[in-house]
Design a protein that fits this description.
The complex is a heterodimer of chains A (299) and B (301). Chain A is α/β, with parallel strands linked by helices and 299 residues long. Helices cover 39% and strands 19% of the residues of chain A. Chain A has helices spanning 6-20, 33-38, 55-65, 80-91, 94-98, 123-128, 140-152, 190-203, 223-232, 247-259, 286-297; strands at residues 25-28, 46-49, 71-74, 105-110, 133-135, 157-162, 182-187, 208-213, 215-217, 234-242, 262-268. In chain A, the strands form two sheets. In chain A, strands 2-1-3-4-6-5-9 form a seven-stranded mixed β-sheet, with helices on both faces. In chain A, strands 8-7-10-11 form a four-stranded parallel β-sheet, sandwiched between helices. The termini of chain A are far apart. By secondary structure, chain B is of the alpha/beta class. In chain B, 45% of the residues lie in helices and 11% in strands. In chain B, α1 (18-43) crosses α3, α2 (58-67) packs parallel to α3 (80-86) and α2 (58-67) runs parallel beside α9. Classes of the chains: A alpha/beta (299), B alpha/beta (301). The interface between A and B is medium-sized, with 32 and 34 residues.
Chain lengths: 299, 301
C-alpha cells in the first residue's frame, strides 16, 4: 500500500471486506461527519445502528455468530464500557464454553483532548479478559497485519486505534543504539511521543532504544524486546491508557520478570480526563517521558 | 389478566390432528420427566452443578418446536425444555449437567448455557446474562436472513437492550419471533412489584404484532403459525415455574398445573390410552437416563 495513510489503509481493507467477502460493518453514525475520519467507504454492507450501545454490540456479535466477520466501529473508546458487555460476556467466552466462535473486529478509536467520555484508551480492560486478541496498530503495515491476523483466527479482536495515527504513512521500526541508557517500550499514540522523547534525551546525552509494541494480547516477549533491555538494563513502558492496572504496568512486569532488569511504567495519571487543557490528562508526552527517564537514571 | 385460560382459543384442540396433539404432548412429557429425573439426581447429590428447571413451563417449547422447527434458537437460562423439545440429545444434556466431556458443551457451560448443533437444530448457547440472547438473535437474523426465535423471561424483557434489539428488528423487518415466558417471577419478585407497564404494549408501540396468551400449547401453536407470517412479532405467554429460580426446591404451589390441564383435555378428546402410553414411555426412558448406578458410574462417585 506504499504511501497510504493509516486511514486510507483502513478504508481499503474495509471496502474489500464488504464488497468481496460478504462482510458487514456496523456502528453508530457511521456516515455522519466524515465517515469516521474518512476511514469508512460508502459501499454495501454498512449497517447504521441506532444509538443503542449494548444492544448494538449484541447485534454485531450476532452477525459474527453467522459468519459475517463484522467490523464493529466504536467511535470513541469510552463507549466500550457500554458496548463491552456482549463482547466480554459472549463473544470472548463462546469459544471456551461452547467450542464455537464469534469473530468480530472491533475498531476501538482513541482520541485526545475531547473531554471525559471521548478521550479514553481502554485496551487494558480487554487485555484483562480471556478470549480477546488485542492490538494497537499505528502504521499502515501494522494495520494490515492486524486485519490479516483477524482473518486468520476466529477470536474477537480489539483493535485499539488512535486518531493521532490516521494521517501517518510511515512505518515505525525499533531503534536500537549502542550503549543505550534506557529502552523505551511504547504503545498506541505514546509511540509518537517516545520518538520525540528519544531525540530530546539524546540532546542531553541520554541514549534511548525504542521498541514499538503493537500486540498487547497475546503478548509474547521476544529477543527483540529483551536484548536491548539487557544492554540498557533500564526500561520504561509508556501507554496512552491509565497506568494503574493498565497495559504499561502489565508489560513492565512481564519484561522485569523475563530479564531481571528494572522496568517502570508510565501511563495516565489516576484522575478523570477533563476538557480544559491543563486537566486533560493526555498520553504521556515527550517532556513527561524525558522527566521520567531522567528520574530513573538519577535513581 | 394473568390466568390459566387467558387468551385461549376455545376448543382449539379439537381442530388439531391427533398426531400433532400427541406429538406436542410427547415433547411435554419428555421435558417434564427429564427434569423430574434431574430433581432426584440433584437431591441425591449426583448432580451438583446449578440447575435451572423448566418444570411447569414445558408446554411452550413443545408447541413452538412443532410450529417453528427450523428456526435458529436463541434461548436463555431456563431452557432444558427448549433444548429437548427442538431435538437436543438428552444424554448430552444430562452429561452437561454432570460436567462431563460428553456434554452438549463438553461440560463447560451447564444448565443455563445450553447449545445444540445436531439433528437439524441450531440452538446457540447462552452465557447467563439475561436478555443477552435477544440482540444476539436479532444480529443472527440480520446476518443470515434466516428466521430466529428469541426466548426469554419476563425479567429479561425489562433489560434495556432487549427493547433496543426488538426495535432494530422492526426497523429492518427481520424475521424474528420474540417469545416471553412470563412466569411472573424474577427470582421471587413479581412483575407487579417491578413495573407498571406491559412488554406486549411496548412491542406493539415499537411497531410489531404483540399478543398475551397463556401456556395452552394448542393456542401457542396456532398463534405462532399466524405470527410467523408477520415477523417480527412478540408473544407474551403466561406460565408457571414449578420450582426455584435455580435449584430443585419449591417456593409456592404453581398458580395452575398446565400438565394436568393438558392431560384432562386430551382425555376429553378420547385419547386416554395414547397419552398414558406416551407418558409411561417418557417416564421409563428418563428413569433409564437418570439411573442412579449409571450416574455413579458416569461421575465416578
Amino acid at each position: 500500500m506504499g504511501q497510504k495513510t493509516v486511514a486510507e489503509t483502513i478504508k481499503e481493507i474495509t471496502r474489500k471486506h464488504l464488497e468481496e467477502n460478504n462482510g458487514l460493518l456496523l456502528g453508530e453514525s457511521i456516515s455522519a461527519v466524515g465517515w469516521v475520519n474518512n476511514t469508512v467507504p460508502n459501499c454495501k454492507g454498512i449497517v447504521e445502528l441506532p444509538m443503542t450501545d449494548v444492544a448494538g454490540a449484541g447485534i454485531a456479535v450476532g452477525t459474527a455468530l453467522v459468519n459475517r466477520r463484522p467490523i464493529f466501529v466504536i467511535r470513541f473508546q469510552d463507549f466500550l464500557i457500554l458496548n463491552g458487555s456482549p463482547l466480554i460476556f459472549f463473544a470472548a467466552k463462546i469459544k471456551e464454553l461452547h467450542g464455537k466462535c464469534a469473530p468480530i473486529f472491533v475498531r476501538a478509536i482513541g482520541a485526545e483532548g475531547l473531554g471525559p467520555v471521548h478521550s479514553g484508551v481502554l485496551h487494558s480492560i480487554f487485555m484483562h479478559f480471556p478470549g480477546f486478541r488485542v492490538c494497537s496498530p499505528m502504521t499502515p503495515a501494522e494495520y494490515i497485519e492486524a486485519w490479516e491476523d483477524f482473518i486468520k483466527h476466529d477470536d474477537p479482536m480489539i483493535c485499539s486505534e488512535h486518531r493521532t495515527s490516521y494521517l501517518n504513512t510511515a512505518e515505525m521500526k525499533n531503534v536500537l543504539k549502542k550503549n543505550a541508557d534506557v529502552t523505551l517500550y511504547a504503545i498506541s499514540s505514546a509511540r509518537f511521543e517516545a520518538i520525540k522523547a528519544a531525540e530530546l534525551l539524546e540532546k542531553e546525552g541520554i541514549i534511548s532504544n525504542i521498541v514499538h509494541i503493537m500486540w498487547l494480547k497475546p503478548f509474547k516477549i521476544t529477543n527483540g524486546m529483551t536484548k536491548p533491555l539487557h544492554q540498557s538494563n533500564l526500561g520504561l513502558v509508556i501507554d496512552s491508557g491509565y497506568e494503574i492496572a493498565g497495559a504499561s504496568r502489565s508489560i513492565a512486569y512481564e519484561l522485569n520478570q523475563a530479564t531481571g532488569c528494572c522496568v517502570k511504567a508510565l501511563g495516565l495519571f489516576d484522575r478523570t480526563k477533563c476538557l480544559c487543557p491543563e486537566l486533560q490528562n493526555k498520553t504521556p508526552d515527550a517532556n513527561r517521558i524525558c522527566e521520567t527517564v531522567k528520574n530513573m537514571i538519577n535513581g | 389478566m394473568r390466568s390459566s385460560n387467558f387468551g385461549i382459543i376455545p376448543n382449539i384442540s379439537k381442530s388439531f390432528e391427533t398426531g400433532l396433539l400427541l406429538d406436542i404432548f410427547r415433547r411435554i412429557c419428555f421435558s417434564r420427566y427429564f427434569d423430574l429425573g434431574l430433581i432426584n439426581a440433584a437431591n441425591e447429590k449426583l448432580v451438583t452443578s446449578m440447575v435451572y428447571l423448566s418444570l411447569g413451563q414445558e408446554s411452550i417449547s413443545a408447541a413452538l418446536s412443532k410450529a417453528i422447527p427450523e428456526y435458529l434458537i436463541f434461548a436463555q437460562h431456563r431452557c432444558h425444555d427448549t433444548y429437548l423439545s427442538f431435538g437436543g440429545n438428552p444424554e448430552k444434556l444430562r452429561d452437561e449437567l454432570l460436567c462431563l466431556p460428553s456434554g452438549s458443551s463438553k461440560g463447560r457451560a451447564g444448565s443455563n448455557c445450553l447449545q445444540c448443533f445436531e439433528n437439524n437444530v441450531s440452538m446457540f448457547g447462552h452465557h447467563g446474562l439475561i436478555g443477552e440472547n435477544v440482540p444476539l438473535g436479532v444480529g443472527a437474523a440480520l446476518g443470515s436472513g434466516k428466521p430466529v426465535v428469541c426466548i426469554f423471561g419476563d425479567g429479561a424483557a425489562e433489560e434495556d437492550y432487549v427493547f433496543s434489539a426488538m426495535g432494530f428488528a422492526v426497523t429492518h423487518k427481520l424475521p424474528v419471533l420474540f417469545v416471553c415466558e412470563d412466569n411472573n417471577l424474577s427470582i421471587l419478585t413479581t412483575v407487579e412489584v417491578r413495573r407498571s407497564w406491559s412488554v406486549t404494549n411496548v412491542a406493539k408501540a415499537l411497531g410489531m404484532p404483540g399478543i398475551d396468551i397463556t401456556d395452552d400449547p394448542w393456542t401457542i401453536y396456532k398463534k405462532t403459525q399466524e405470527l410467523k407470517n408477520n415477523l417480527p412479532a412478540f408473544i407474551n405467554i403466561y406460565t408457571c415455574r414449578a420450582r426455584w429460580h435455580v435449584g430443585t426446591g419449591v417456593d409456592n404451589p404453581p398458580e395452575w398445573d398446565r400438565f394436568k390441564i393438558v392431560k384432562d383435555e386430551l382425555n376429553g378428546l378420547g385419547l386416554s390410552d395414547h397419552i398414558a402410553k406416551i407418558e409411561e414411555e417418557a417416564k421409563t426412558s428418563m428413569e433409564k437416563l437418570w439411573d442412579k448406578k449409571l450416574l455413579q458410574k458416569l461421575s465416578k462417585k
